[in-house]
Design a protein that fits this description.
This protein is of the alpha+beta class and 484 residues long. 40% of the residues lie in helices and 19% in strands. An eight-stranded mixed β-sheet has the order 5-6-9-1-10-11-12-13. A three-stranded antiparallel β-sheet has the order 4-3-14, with no helix packed on it. The chain is elongated and about 100 Å long. The structure holds zinc ion.
């Protein structure tokens, strides 16, 4: 009988993140290429015309340094740009400007918060470097041709390489989520995965009885779901091969989300195939202490620290604090609103339900919320409800209208006469009618069945679309019933 093998999954990630700069890494072309007509964001530099010289974008360096600092990396004084040579139609220069032997940063880490919310796991960052993006090949099925769009050529990226510290596909997806959150907090990148602003490749192998296994590489994982699914598929494939006594071959796969499988790509290139050498057009990049000190001071509170502060400082449940700090823009919004209306749990409730629903329906990014519905507006609605001038349901409708139209909640309430009805004469009139329509209920009440009053109040509320002051309505009904 064969012994059971002790297998452990080992995953390392390579993550490319597009930096949130206005222009490209080595020229003044706009980096905002997404959706632009093909080949309209290009110049001799990013097209690799002979004689055109690159000029480094300082802002890109700053953002890359911020990412490195957020990941607690060491930042050497000197880093070097290198040419990575390969031939592919999306790379007009015949090489990509990257960093190789002397990257911008190394030896960092991210403390991954595990799902139980209390423990963390340290994932080491091997290196973080700057590089330019390549163009895009667009397949054109009607003609069967492949077209080249060079708008993306030269767009600034950082590549983040982890040590193989991840032990499951779920952990890998969780890591990318938390990395994304951290980079969004630091304004390094929007990390919009649908736009390809964060792209993930992975190395995966199975260690058997503590002996390292052969790695394969999975590319083209462009969503959290894809990361988890693709790695699961490959993990299962490798484990089954090993259990049957087979081997794993080094190979590169692409994830095909439609088919739900990994598909072999070109044979994996080794570093020596790229013939890296220092780019003679670019001087070494020197980073001094003062620069990193200034950038460090600009970094915002980290998501984890902020969550703890929100939970403890405002007495919020852990659940609320977690959701509110997923996005820095939402946490900022929450704190601005609470400064104006110091009932944190109430603000949190409205944000997490009503405001999140509106954002979702409008397909609006969290960072656009304050522009659409300033915190002052939300607070105005909360005050109207708090003071009893409108009820909660009306409050929701007013909030929705304020969100859609940008109008003042007060003005909406005035104009649409949504305010609570606390006019006794008006309610007395309505009470009279309700009693006439429900003679049996009125008789039951008089016979001593107090509970019928609730039913009659409900009828009155319905006639006013919930706007009647319920306490006053009950009093008026009671008076009328006693008098009749
Ligand atoms: Zn250009």
């Amino acid at each position: 009988m064969r012994e059971t093998l002790k297998m452990e999954t080992v995953i390392g990630l390579e993550i490319h993140v597009q930096l949130a700069t206005r222009t490209k890494l080595f020229c003044g072309c706009s980096a905002d290429y997404f959706g632009a007509p093909p080949n309209t964001h290009c110049c001799p530099v990013c097209l690799g015309m002979p004689g055109a010289l690159p000029v480094l974008n300082e802002r890109a360096v700053e953002l890359a340094l911020k990412a490195a600092l957020a990941l607690d990396c060491e930042i050497p004084e000197r880093s070097v740009f290198a040419r990575k040579q390969y031939f592919y139609p999306d790379l007009p220069k015949g090489y990509q400007i990257s960093q190789y032997e002397a990257p911008l940063a190394r030896d960092g880490h991210l403390d991954l918060e595990l799902p139980d919310g209390t423990t963390t796991k340290r994932v080491r960052i091997r290196r973080l470097h700057l590089e330019e993006d390549a163009g895009r090949l667009v397949h054109d099925p009607p003609t069967g041709r492949t077209l080249v769009d060079l708008n993306r050529c030269g767009v600034p990226l950082i590549e983040i390489v982890t040590e193989p510290d991840l032990r499951s596909p779920e952990e890998a997806a969780l890591f990318v989520k938390q990395l994304r959150r951290l980079l969004r907090y630091a304004d390094v990148s929007r990390c919009d995965m649908e736009r390809g602003e964060l792209r993930v490749d992975a190395n995966i192998s199975i260690a058997v009885d503590g002996r390292p296994g052969t790695k394969t590489e999975i590319k083209n994982m462009n969503s959290f779901q894809a990361i988890e699914k693709a790695l699961k598929v490959e993990e299962t494939r490798q484990r089954m091969a090993l259990e049957r006594g087979g081997t794993v071959q080094p190979q590169t796969f692409g994830w095909n989300p439609e088919a739900g499988r990994v598909e072999p790509q070109r044979a994996k290139e080794e570093a020596e195939d790229y013939r890296y050498f220092p780019d003679p057009d670019l001087v070494p990049l020197l980073i001094d202490e003062a620069w990193t000190r200034r950038l460090r001071a600009e970094l915002p509170e980290r998501p984890r620290e902020r969550r703890r502060r929100l939970q403890e400082g405002y007495g919020l449940p852990a659940y609320d604090a977690r959701l509110l700090t997923e996005e820095r823009a939402i946490a900022d919004y929450f704190e601005r609103a609470v400064a104006l209306f110091p009932k944190p749990k109430e603000v949190s409730n409205w944000l997490l339900t009503e405001v999140f629903r509106l954002l979702d329906e409008a397909k609006l990014a969290p960072e656009d919320l304050a522009g659409r519905l300033p915190p002052e507006r939300l607070v105005e609605v909360l005050r109207l409800v708090d003071e009893g001038r409108i009820n909660r349901n009306t409050g929701k409708a007013v909030l929705e209208e304020a969100f859609r139209t940008g109008r003042e909640p007060e003005a909406i309430v005035e104009e649409r006469k949504l305010g609570r009805i606390a006019d006794e004469a008006r309610l007395a009139e309505l009470a009279e009618r309700v009693i006439q329509e429900h003679p049996q209920a009125a008789r039951d009440f008089k016979a001593g069945n107090e509970r019928v009053l609730g039913f009659l109040v409900g009828q009155l509320m319905a006639r006013t679309q919930g706007r009647a002051d319920p306490k006053l309505a009950a009093k008026v009904l009671r008076d009328k019933l006693a008098a009749s």
